[in-house]
TrEMBL record:
Protein name: ABC transporter permease
Keyword Electron transport: no
Main location, first listed in the record: membrane
TM segment ranges: 21-48, 82-103, 115-135, 155-174, 210-231, 269-292
Keyword Signal found: no
InterPro entries: ABC_transporter_permease (IPR051393), MetI-like (IPR000515), MetI-like_sf (IPR035906)
Record key words, sorted: Cell membrane, Membrane, Transmembrane, Transmembrane helix, Transport
Gene Ontology biological process terms from the UniProt entry: transmembrane transport
Source domain of life: Bacteria
Length: 305
């Protein structure tokens, strides 16, 4: 009888805890539904309509999606977005990793230098874009002035179809690298020193220790940084809007810029919602498998312990 009563009390306690958890989660779930789920469903519905916020929405089925998938300008924006996202990830991870490796050693003034590198992250994209627009300015900017002083021709960074996107990538790396460098540095601190010392005792040089010990131990951290940085790159807009307005010749026009242009220049909110849905699907294709992998890894760890 005592065992039965004890089990009943335990079940009652668990049920009470579940009810309390649901009550505590309800406000957050309500906010999530109002700010994410309902707008997303509304955007999906509007993506099948022609809507200009003046007349009533008119159902057009898949016309918006057909138009987008056959539009060469939208195709260019997709390629430009991938160029930006992949470019900043490939360059950024290498730069952030080796910067973190440098700061992982005891350096005089290391804390102050880390703060300086991280400071651009505290600035808004608009501020950083305006600052770098001045640096790239062909008439008054210092970069082209230095080239002229050296007897070289100015490069006109933001008006060249070949240099505009690399110039935006450079600005974005300057702003974001400090944040991801801190994450990588935390991963470096977690690498067991015993493994590195054992490899060193076995005669492994610096490069072999890096390739066979440090990087494999940091694979999950580097994977997280790569995915997070890439997903952020897919949503790039402010840099392109402030610095080049999508030009020259659509060379810096991104998916989100196409969304903005459809909604607020053409007043075609149905097309804009179709762009948003396609972008959401692209992000989901990357993010969902990553989330599933994280859950599987966490489950394996729980079973291992």
């Amino acid at each position: 009888m005592r065992k039965a009563s004890g089990r009943s009390a335990s079940l009652d306690l668990e049920a009470g805890q579940r009810r309390a958890a649901r009550l505590l989660a309800a406000p957050a779930l309500a906010v999530l539904a109002l700010t994410v789920v309902i707008p997303l469903l509304f955007a999906i519905v509007l993506s099948f309509t022609r809507y200009d916020m003046i007349t009533r929405p008119r159902w057009v089925g898949l016309d918006n999606y057909r138009t987008l998938l056959t539009d060469p300008v939208f195709g260019t924006s997709v390629l430009s977005t991938l160029y930006f996202a992949v470019g900043q990830v490939l360059i950024g991870i290498v730069a952030a990793f080796f910067t973190a490796m440098l700061f992982n050693r005891r350096l005089a003034g290391g804390a102050a230098m880390r703060t300086v590198i991280y400071l651009p992250q505290a600035m808004s994209y608009v501020t950083v874009a305006l600052l770098w627009s001045f640096l790239y300015d062909p008439a008054n900017g210092p970069l082209d002035a230095i080239l002229r002083a050296l007897g070289l021709s100015p490069l006109n960074f933001l008006t060249s179809t070949h240099l505009a996107m690399p110039a935006i990538i450079a600005m974005s790396l300057w702003r974001n690298m400090g944040y991801f460098m801190i994450i990588i540095l935390a991963g470096l601190k977690a690498v067991p020193g015993d493994l590195i010392e054992a490899a060193q005792l076995d005669g492994a040089g610096w490069w072999r220790r890096l390739a066979h010990v440090i990087v494999p131990q940091m694979s999950s951290t580097l994977f997280f940084v790569a995915v997070t940085w890439f997903l952020g790159g897919l949503q790039m807009f402010t840099q392109s809007y402030v610095m080049t307005q999508g030009g020259p010749v659509n060379s810096t026009r991104t998916i989100v810029y196409s969304l903005y242009d459809a909604a607020f220049t053409s007043l075609d909110f149905g097309r804009a919602c179709a762009v948003a849905v396609l972008l959401f699907l692209a992000v989901a294709v990357v993010a969902v498998p990553v989330r599933i992998k994280q859950q599987l890894n966490a489950r394996r760890l729980r079973h291992a312990h």
